[in-house]
Structures are given as structure tokens and as C-alpha cells.
Amino acid sequence: MSLAKIKHIVLVLSGKGGVGKSSITTQLALSLSLAGHSVGVLDVDLTGPSIPRMFGIESEKVTQAPGGWLPITVHPSSPPSDSHPSGVGSLRVMSLGFLLPNRGDAVVWRGPKKTAMVRQFLSDVFWDDLDYLLIDTPPGTSDEHISLAETLLRQARPEQVSGAVVVTTPQAVATADVRKELNFCVKTGIKVLGVVENMAGYVCPNCSECTNIFSSGGGEVMAGEFGVKFLGRVPIDPQFLVLIETGKRPRYPKGTKVNGEEFQGVETEREGEEEKAGNKEGLLVNKYGDCSLAPIFKGITSDVVAAVEGGR
Ligand SMILES: Nc1ncnc2c1ncn2[C@@H]1O[C@H](COP(=O)(O)OP(=O)(O)OP(=O)(O)O)[C@@H](O)[C@H]1O
Ligand code: SF4
């Protein structure tokens, strides 16, 4: 069974579309891998698989092996170094996006076909050993969710299913939808590891000041109501959008403070060289390390790890 060698399975859920669930999944995956964990990402968002684009691996093709579909390797593991004392864990991705003839196509299958695909996703991908499998789910409490929850609970050992990270935005309308998602977790017996409030305020690209454009704090209030952990706020950062949507390094004006240090501009030639040399890992580490949101994702990831480990 393909899930047998996975230590922790974490679902990333949101009741509403477009709140940044896939973006948060990619960042959690990256932070876990940079902390030395081997990570898999399963993109079950059948209506709009965006994970391959976000990792810059959209044109890759998955192949079949006797043990199942082989996920695409974003980067292999690497030994401890000064910058990553625990080493870097391997990062692999499986998405329906790899199987669609035209990338970007949305899947319009009806319930039973979707349910069958989710089952196959869970049972037929050859993950081998993984510390974490993150599952990016479609928004809502639809057929896919129910089928995924049922299949997970049936195919995985109870101690493997660590729980769910629920993503919301601060606006009341989003939190009302996400409330449904939290109720869904209660009904299906999936533990909520915590709530992330994404797009909470706007980071000015000139001065790095964060301004609350919409209301703020909805996610924290909701977490309190349900008695679950509030994992933190992620502001809107226009550079992050560029990074996540194009797979390119962010471009801050020279002098902007990034991770507490002055950003020195973008070294595009080096980026090209690394790409040519196939140094995907180096490229990713640089790319994401330069993002102003990186420390926030690191903090959220530590809390998720603590919640997972604490619940064993
Ligand atoms: N904190 C952020 N700052 C800037 N842009 C963001 C942030 N979070 C997400 N985005 C952008 O918002 C858009 C929607 O994000 P994403 O695709 O992750 O949402 P989703 O909830 O997974 O959507 P879907 O419902 O399609 O699955 C993307 O273009 C993403 O790059
Ligand atoms: S503080 Fe930032 S967002 Fe506000 S005016 Fe100055 S540069 Fe613009």
C-alpha cells in the first residue's frame, strides 16, 4: 500500500476558493524540507491543480513503475550544511495536473469519477519513505472531501493521519465558509492542527510597512471559537505573488529589508547558471530564502510540526 511508509499525513483545507491554500501548501512543504524532513505533496484539487506551476515543474511528466506512479522530484535530499544544519529533505510532488493532456485544463468529471480518482491517488502513488505527506484539497466540503476523508481513514493507520491545517482570509465571508470546513473536520473526526489567516494586511513593496486593508483577526477569533490553535497571519506580499505564480525570484527594490538584512538586488545571471546546471535545490533555497514571508512560514511550520509531534 502506497501510504504505508509515510509518517505523517497533513491535509490543507479551506472552505472557500482562492484564499491561498495551494500557496500555503507549497510554503509548508518547502519549510519542512529545509528543516530536514522528507516531504511529499499530493495535489487533489481536481478542479484547478496549481501546485505543479507553483513549484515550476509544470512541464514534467509522471511515469508508471511497478509500485505505482512515480512523483516528480522538486529536489533530492542533501546532507547537513552551515545554512541547513539538519540537511535538506527530499521534496516530491504528485498532481492530477501532470496527467491532463492540456495543462491548465480544469477537470469537469462528475462525483463518482472524481471519487475513483481520489482513491487511486491515495493508493497508486509510489511515495516510498516520507516524513510528511501534505494533501492540497479542493475548496469546500464537496464529494472529493468526503471521499478523501473516508479513503484516508480507511487506507491509512489512524496514527498516520495527523490532522488538517485550515486556511482562511480575514474577511467575514471567508471565515463563514471556513467554519463549515471546521465543522466537517469535527464530523469526520479529523483533528485540526490549526488555522492560518492568509492575506492579512498588505506589505508595501517600498517600505515593507504592513497595512490592514480589509478587516483582520477573523481567523484568530474563529480558531478561539473552535478551541483550535491559531498558527499565524500571512500578509499579502506582491513579490510573493510573482514568486509563486512564475517560479521566479522576488524583486525587491535595493535597500529593502528582507529577513532583517538589506536586499542586494537580483542576480539574474547566477539564477540562469544554476538553472542550466540543474541546481534546482540551490535555486529554490535562494528563491524562497529571499522572500519576506519566509520567516513567517518557518514559524507556522514549527507550530505545525509541534502539533503533529505533540499529537502522537
Ligand atoms: N500572502 C499572499 N501574498 C500575495 N499573494 C498571495 C498570497 N497568498 C496567495 N496569493 C496569491 O493568490 C492567488 C490564489 O492563491 P492560491 O492558488 O494559493 O489559492 P487557493 O486557495 O489554493 O485557490 P483554489 O481555490 O484555486 O485552490 C495566487 O495567485 C497566489 O499567488
Ligand atoms: S509607507 Fe509605504 S505604503 Fe505608505 S506611502 Fe510610504 S511607501 Fe507607500
Automatic annotation (TrEMBL):
One of its GO terms (cellular component) is cytosol. It is found in: Cytoplasm. InterPro entries: Mrp-like_CS, Mrp/NBP35_ATP-bd, NUBP2/Cfd1_eukaryotes, P-loop_NTPase, YlxH/NBP35. Keywords: 4Fe-4S, ATP-binding, Cytoplasm, Iron, Iron-sulfur, Metal-binding, Nucleotide-binding. [4Fe-4S] cluster binds at residues 204, 207. GO terms for biological process: iron-sulfur cluster assembly. It comes from the Eukaryota. Residues 254-279 are annotated as: Disordered. Component of the cytosolic iron-sulfur (Fe/S) protein assembly (CIA) machinery. Required for maturation of extramitochondrial Fe-S proteins. The NBP35-CFD1 heterotetramer forms a Fe-S scaffold complex, mediating the de novo assembly of an Fe-S cluster and its transfer to target apoproteins. Belongs to the Mrp/NBP35 ATP-binding proteins family. NUBP2/CFD1 subfamily. This is Cytosolic Fe-S cluster assembly factor CFD1. It comes from Cladorrhinum samala.
